[in-house]
Amino acid sequence: MTMPSKDSERPLTEAGRDDIEYVASSLRKLKVGLDRIATSPLKRAKETAEIVVNVYEESAPKLEIWEELRPEGDRQEAIQRLSRLRQDADILLVGHEPYLSSLAGEIISNGSSARIMLKKGGMAKIQILSFSPRPSGELRWLLTPRQMRKMAD
Predict the structure, then answer these.
(1) CB 40 within 8 A of CB 48
(2) Is the pTM of the predicted complex or chain greater than 0.85?
């Protein structure tokens, strides 16, 4: 099997697919509601988002592709796009590191320099408090895939 020449075209590995299916099943089992999933257009991210949609079946969230979630995306554009959504919406962002950790850190630190570290397949829940004059929010939880598995078992 030949590997794609560009990283942006590289698919999830079989192990990666299995991990995401398990994480998505754990989320559903834990009754984590999702209104929408916003994903980077890169292949691995889109495949990840599609797995979550498939696992959620009839309660599947709306899937959107956001150019702003590319690894080289503009965090300010992503924040502006988030600010146009319903304040209490439950949104899953699927993207790449270190971009997502940086975005989350900016939101929870009210523009200063808080740092969090997301593991592959990991999740953070952030409650947005405001987007004006700058984004601010509270980190509600940060979980690794392993922690989610243990909680859902």
Answers:
(1) no
(2) yes
* pLDDT over threshold 80, residue 34: yes
Largest CA distance in the chain: 51
For residues 43 and 11, is the Cβ–Cβ distance under 8 A?
yes
Q: Is residue 145 within 8 Å of residue 120, measured between CB atoms? A: yes
The tokens 């009754």 sit on which residue?
31
61 preceded by a cis bond (ω within 30 of 0) = no
Three-state DSSP state, 106: helix
DSSP string covering 2-26: PPPSSGGGPPPPHHHHHHHHHHHHH
Residue 88 — very low, low, confident or very high, per pLDDT cuts 50/70/90?
confident
Q: What is the mean pLDDT of residues 142-151?
A: 84
For residue 118, give the nearest of 94, 85, 87 by alpha carbon.
Answer: 94
Spatial separation of the C-alpha atoms in residues 92 and 126, rounded to whole Å: 10
3-state SS class at 123:
strand
The domains found in the chain, sorted by start residue, are: 13-152 (3.40.50.1240)
